[in-house]
Amino acid sequence: MRLDHTHDVTAKSWLESANLKDTPFPLQNLPFGVFRRTGTAEGFRGGVALGDQVIDLGALADAAALHGLAVEAARACAKPGLNQFFDMGPTAWRALRHTLFALFKADGRSQSSSQHRSQLDTPGIDVLEKCLVAQSDVEYCVPAQIGDYTDFYTSLDHARNIVKLIRPDAIVSPNFHWIPSAYHGRVSSIGVSGQQIRRPFGQRLKAGSQEPELQACGRLDYELELGIFVGTGNEQGTRIPVESAEDHVFGLCLLNDWSARDIQSWESAPLGPFLAKNFATTLSPWIVTMDALAPYRAPWTRSEGEPQPLPYLSSAGTYESGAMDIQLEVSLETRETRRNGMSPTRLSRTSFRHQYWTVAQMVAHHTIGGCNLRSGDLLGSGTISGPTHGEAGALIELTEAGRAPLKLPNGESRSFLEDGDIVVMTGWCERPGYARIGFGENRGEVTPAKWA
Amino acid sequence: MRLDHTHDVTAKSWLESANLKDTPFPLQNLPFGVFRRTGTAEGFRGGVALGDQVIDLGALADAAALHGLAVEAARACAKPGLNQFFDMGPTAWRALRHTLFALFKADGRSQSSSQHRSQLDTPGIDVLEKCLVAQSDVEYCVPAQIGDYTDFYTSLDHARNIVKLIRPDAIVSPNFHWIPSAYHGRVSSIGVSGQQIRRPFGQRLKAGSQEPELQACGRLDYELELGIFVGTGNEQGTRIPVESAEDHVFGLCLLNDWSARDIQSWESAPLGPFLAKNFATTLSPWIVTMDALAPYRAPWTRSEGEPQPLPYLSSAGTYESGAMDIQLEVSLETRETRRNGMSPTRLSRTSFRHQYWTVAQMVAHHTIGGCNLRSGDLLGSGTISGPTHGEAGALIELTEAGRAPLKLPNGESRSFLEDGDIVVMTGWCERPGYARIGFGENRGEVTPAKWA
């Protein structure tokens, strides 16, 4: 994590859409995803978002005069998953980032064709333009072949909110203060923004009843999380020290950990959530790299009375800049709001900087027993809730387990999600003197239960 | 699940080692695995165990006159993982089983070369012999690319044993009687028999202490389980009905769910076990098919006072032959017993027929919320413990959480596993009028903790 010229706020692209005030994808961002032209039989392949375009990395490797590690890296991206590119490590990731920054930066080059500049070892803008595909014309897939997905539980505010709902005098499990808690999640049902989420059936126990019944979920919820893609892994039986843990992380995306609360409360003892979570998980298509996030790091602190972490979770880096100030927002579209052309309703707004445990601590803890991470593995941050009510990352917290339904501006109300609801998550970073970079959108639509 | 001529106990092979009384792999078994010649750079590929040999399926497809679906199936096996073969479904699995049975059956054919029998559409024994590799010359890998690994918790005897250790008056969680409980496990650390298990580090809380410490695991344990390989999956948002669930299962192997009990007790609330389990899981190399297991099915019953399952977990098939009488045994080798050339010590002996939930119920429950299974996914049965003390599937049960150490015949004692211990699991089926078929061995060795 270091600042360099790719974070220079004054840098502009010759691609005008990358310089627009509201784009999530200015030249300083350069997030990675996997795409193809919508509805075609083209192969999915790696690309980088810039303005309203996708840079087709395989096409760029074929067409442009990339050099050395950057061309190898671009070719490694020209596949349906970014695993091989991830596995090349931070030097290769950075080489490609720097090359893309240089190629797409406005440097006084005219729009002249490459013929007029053949003596220069840099492709002309006309060549580069042929490697662009409009984002409006593409569809995305999950950007890596995910070997394992681990979901953490790292927001103390979320943990406190949940515990209070169960019993006002209950306390958060003592191990929360010592362990970046986690459990293994389901890989097969992970999808990308635009995913349709069929309301699941499952067992639930009605209040006062001794016998469960099989029903469509009546308390469907979202959870606002960040997804963390592992870049490089470790051998089984070894650990990743907290000091170097971030070198193993490629980048972050938005993650919706859909949750069936009624199924969850009946099934979860003693092994944790299973069917309540494994029917679907939705990712945003773009992975914002750790390099792009460098300017938005924040100090990480422990409130008074909270224990300091054990040495294997502690390093100077953890304290100075372990947190990340990533702004997050969840909005809801309903069938009604869409029919009436109304704006989505904002449900919450928070920042990732409130998390009790850092990304480096998650990685270090995950491997302390010798568990091997692999390139392309996914970690979920756990629900991100800030300290105030409007910062809660799930409906169960916002509505006090349904007891205090949310009123929407159009008169509708919500205790939990209804069929046709679309949950939209967005994220961005901003800091004076630096660019505003975005994560794009994570959208998922609830469809009715179906006995199929 | 049907009986046919491949279950005929009188059938013998022209390969003599397949007819020996003690072989786990007679002609009636034909289990699948993935192998290569030890220490070579050969590609791993699918094979079938017969006597003391491995039938190299790719070589067989190239060399012998296989027909139709059987040759397609054999070619699909000629890869480092059996996923594509699994995905072909039960008709293809059966076609290959029947073809192998016919080719390797002693049918009065002499050992004459194929030249003398060229008018017949069956390869000569000399051709088939060239497709055999001695098991003593091969090494194995995990037999499929596992997309997701789910570990169940389906032995009521195990659940009762564990609960009693915590508090004598405690009861098994009420949902146990309604749900084939499960949680997602770790794929990356799954290995095959022969795996070395490095003793993990992890947080543990000493009795009476408020603050955990990082230590090498002091209570390392095994868990005796069966691994269940998913043959064909389901689309996300659909379910697999219990009536057809077994058609989606390819077969079973032996599984050791290594467990760090001290780490487990501190970390598991509220999300379930994580680092206590994810450092390693060991599989036996051979998958015994559901077809081979057909003669050893057993009725499945609910004791009086136990609730009948909800309709989605209930079918005539579940009751009549839902259980499987698979004999299981765990033995321990120590550094001392090896040094002195002593036999391993048998720690327990039980049968899979005691499980509270069936394989079909596990599959049906897993998908009732629309979670998609994929070819090659692995389900663990959960620890298999029978009703009596000597049938417990883990040391924590056998030694009452270490309070009653086991005495070994050589004077050693064990509360939990020590460095150098090798846990050996074996399994087999037998029934009057049918062949005795085996699972082979699942061995794993504990190596010392290392701060690496």
TrEMBL record, chains A, B:
This is fumarylacetoacetase. Residues 151-437 form the Fumarylacetoacetase-like C-terminal domain. Keywords: Calcium, Hydrolase, Magnesium, Metal-binding, Phenylalanine catabolism, Tyrosine catabolism. Residues 28-143 form the Fumarylacetoacetase N-terminal domain. Pathway: Amino-acid degradation; L-phenylalanine degradation; acetoacetate and fumarate from L-phenylalanine: step 6/6. The keyword Repeat does not apply. It comes from Paraburkholderia ginsengiterrae. Substrate binds at Y153, R167, Q264, T383. The active site is at H158. GO terms for molecular function: fumarylacetoacetase activity; metal ion binding. It comes from the Bacteria. One of its GO terms (biological process) is L-tyrosine catabolic process. Its cofactor is Ca(2+); Mg(2+). Its EC number is 3.7.1.2. Mg(2+) binds at D257, K277, T281. It holds the Pfam family FAA_hydrolase. Ca(2+) binds at D151, E223, E225. The keyword Magnesium applies.
